[in-house]
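Methods — Computational structure assignment.
A single polypeptide chain was analysed. Its primary sequence is given first, followed by the predicted tertiary structure written as structure tokens.
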Amino acid sequence: MLKHLAPAAIALLLAIGVAPRAAQAICNVDYRVQPGDTLFSIAETHYNDRSRWTLIYYSNQHVLEGPSVIPGKTLHIPCAQQATTPDATPLRKDDAEMKLLTGGGFAPFTDQTLPGQGMVTELVNAALELTPAPVSYSITWEKDWSKHLFPMLDEKQFDMGFPWLKPDCAANPTDERCVNFHFSEPLMTIPIMVFVRADAAFAFDSDADMLGKTLCRPEGYYTHDLDRGDRRWLREGKLTLVQAADPGACFRKLMAREVDGVSLNLFLGANTLIAEGLRDQVIPLERPLSEEGLHVVISKRHWRGTSHLYRINAGLKALKVDGRFQDIVSRHLELFWAQLQ
């Protein structure tokens, strides 16, 4: 297939009734962004499936400015990766020099039932196998996430933990995570979306569109992105935040019209609305509310903090250079969206 496909050619294909299906995707091509394009619309054109916009998002992090597309920029449209067996991990051993901690129930990122034990777990494995200063390592699973940072990592029962969001430490230096932990470079970023009723007249073209709205997030969910930069939505009462017991409760409030939107990471939101039977009744707005990185963390009191973080960061860099990073992410994205069909 041609590496460069003109927008006019794509339009012609659509006009004559050969819109791409899953087996006929217009992929492994470069696409020049046109005025009015979004990642959703580009995915619909190339994959005939708007949900696969994340394939484009993760393949073009070096081009995109956040989640927005800019007319005139060229994006690579990857083909979906087929399921493969995760790479071998000869350095991963039970009796290891470096001990990592993670937990389950966080699809598609970490869970022992997922292929490769999840996207982020596989990225960590691959980074530690590729790092220029390799050591043996183990990964322990603790289902109670509330124990991970305090006391388990803070007391150095384990060397490092993943995956964790990093607060805005510049704006909130006294946040307990900022005070007590060092963070790796982001393993990956995740888009934080606003989910709304499909029949709602809710536009989110700029931050001003959020003023006066009521959003729901689960109890314990972070809020720093709502006050980041010049937003100050919560601090100045520009937006109302309702906190519910769990993501499902937020969606039930949405359907009862008690809130205008539900703000969650894309993957948790997609999983939850399917579980709640709301596939056609709730949709994500096309503009993410924010992007958050998932990191490896280590206690600031750990005597090998610098060297261990170097191993993760150097391995991640090597993964991206040789293309394996994108292969792993694309494969897990395809598995995630396929199981929601």
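Note: The longest strand covers residues 188-197.
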